[in-house]
Amino acid sequence: MAEAAAGTGGRAGQLKSSGLRHGWTTGACATAATKAAYTALLTGEFPDPVVITLPKGQQPAFALAAEQPAADGRPYAMAGVVKDAGDDPDVTHGALIRSTVRAGEPGTGVVFRAGPGVGTVTKAGLPLPVGEPAINPMPRQMIRDAVAEVAAEHGGSGDVVVEISVDHGEEIARSTWNPRLGILGGLSILGTTGIVVPYSCSAWIDSIRRGVDVARAAGRTHVAGCTGSTSEKVAVAVHGLPEDALLDMGDFAGAVLKYLKRHPVPRLTIAGGFAKLSKLAAGHLDLHSARSQVDKGYLAELARQGGADEALAAAVAAANTGLEAVQLCRAAGVPLGDLVAEAARATALGVLLGSPVAVDVICIDRAGTIVGRAEPLGP
Question: Which of 175, 172, 179, 169 is nearest to 210 (CA)?
């Protein structure tokens, strides 16, 4: 995923976080493309690079990767910027984000349109009305500010139609939450600061929150936070949940629980692999292997509480994996899987304390077999 020489933000490398290079959001790229296109519409010249001001005052410069001036029979200008996500493994890294700007009706201000590769909102619960292009509120404000700046500098009215498109965006969007959230036809134009912080996983966490919002708007009273596709299938098989009640939690159990505390749904099922949920049982809210580990000493103590003798507890403590530990206990009639599920439920309820959410937990093995359950418990 090397940088494209003709299209990356020229100052991306100057922003550092733990030695990793920051990048730019799709919203920042769309803003830069819009500023360049509107400038060309008014003056006939494209600024390249084009400098924009981000919400916190930073002023990155973006090189243009595509440009098309207005001409006879073509009453618009188009500019494109290649997204540079820095060192973040962002699915939109390298995508060409285009803005096509044309004059709007007097007094209409900035009107947004979804071009090819940008989605349209089709479900309630998102921060945009149904039928609107999936260009989030902060990118819209950034684009409005850029349009106002150009209008003031070059004598424009600021009444424009801005169409944002992303090359191959509909294909890229299939690997995002967008279809499940009811954003159809392509990607969302995102970002609150304009900056992508490497490995912050902010887009994933934001998708979890929007998933809760959509489920609540649809009237769902039961949602499932699942660590992966196998646990999601198990949750559907056990509870018969519709797609918009499924939250792709991944490793971010804390993100699900903290958001549900503020925006409750009556029932939450947590479904995941035994090893990951053993981390939740031990009190970890981030289940990623780089940030939390399976504590086999803790599993041994749980096994003792379930009736394991010292030989079995020692075997659990020495097990190669969490799954081996649960298999050893199952062979001895010790319900380690259920004990982990109950402890994971207790951790979840501790985070949700004071919020009207009941929780049940399903632990599975790699094949999707249920190895532990905790029935619903809550306020």
Answer: 179
